[in-house]
Amino acid sequence: MRWQSRVSRRTLTSTDTSSALSRRTLLAGLAATPALTAAAAPVIAQASAPKTAAEQVQAALKEANGTKLVLLGTGAGPGGQGPERTRKMTSHVMLSNGAAYVLDCGIGVTDQYACTGIAFPALRSIFITHHHADHNIEYGPLLVIGWINGMRVDVRAFGPAPLKEMTEYFLRAYKTTVDFWAEDLKMKPLVTVDVKEVSTAGPVMQDENVKVSAIIVEHPPVKPALSYRFDFKDRSIAFSGDTGPTEAVAKIAKGADVLVHSAMYVPAIETYIRGEIAKGRPVKFEDLLAHMKANHTPVEDVGRVAQNAGVKTLVLSHLIPAFEGISDETWRAQAKKYFKGEIIVGKDLMVV
Predict the structure, then answer these.
(1) For a surface tag, which of 228, 232, 238, 307 has the fewest beta carbons within 10 Å of its beta carbon?
(2) pLDDT tens, residue by residue, 10-63
(3) What is the SS3 assignment for 14-33?
(4) Domain CATH number, residue 274
(5) Cβ–Cβ contacts within 10 Å for residue 270, how many?
(6) pTM check: above 0.90
């Protein structure tokens, strides 16, 4: 091998090799191996194949000016897991002035964040809208995996109670894992996270990049469930969180550049519920449909909220149901019954 020609025979003896290579050097070398292999690949492998979603989002962020929003996961609910589910659970990241802010942590948030190419040390704060699994289930893993990959130990978290207790319990459960990595890689261990619990409407936090506020929305029996607004220097982005139809979202999103709103297409939900009952799920059609209508906003009502808020762009996300059987035009047609601005049907790893 070519690299061996530059190494003396003495260097390659087993005794000297074992003493010369530290564990961290070996790990670094192993990590670099795929890159070396790729670099040595024939030129024919570089044919103009379509870019992957990860390559597209990385290119978009590299070329971007100003604050950008990446939809990491656009599907609603923890149910419907299987090949028919083509959207990750809800999560988002906003990138502004080199700092990243994550909103919600459904399954997939850690991998999706990594796919964007945003470095983990850029992560400043994590926000949780409410305590349902599709919004918080990967909060803890994001902290630990992020820390292993260089996340700042002064990262902050915001959300409804009992977020502080949840964070403490999780870090206690994973203390042994964290301590092993900290010892092995000579890292400062992740011992605690600065958590601020949010229980009322009003200001949440402010730093040199953004001012964040929240309002209470309707998502029974969850209390409180939050809608957030992020006012960056160059644009404002509001998120409905999970909610039934409410003017609270229009209030907090008033005049925003972008409103990301959960959306439900009722005919498809009815079909989905019937399918679940046919599979033996022990629910009544009327009960589950009533629950969905109380907890989520039909897409035509989303358009009404966006119009009342006077936002420039409406992004339909946290789509219910969370599969691709509904065309973008169907989603858009319902929303534009009332909303006259730009309508975007969210896709995983889309940059807005």
Answers:
(1) 307
(2) 333 333 433 333 443 333 333 333 333 333 333 334 455 678 999 999 999 998
(3) HHHHHHHCCHHHHHHHHHHH
(4) 3.60.15.10
(5) 14
(6) no
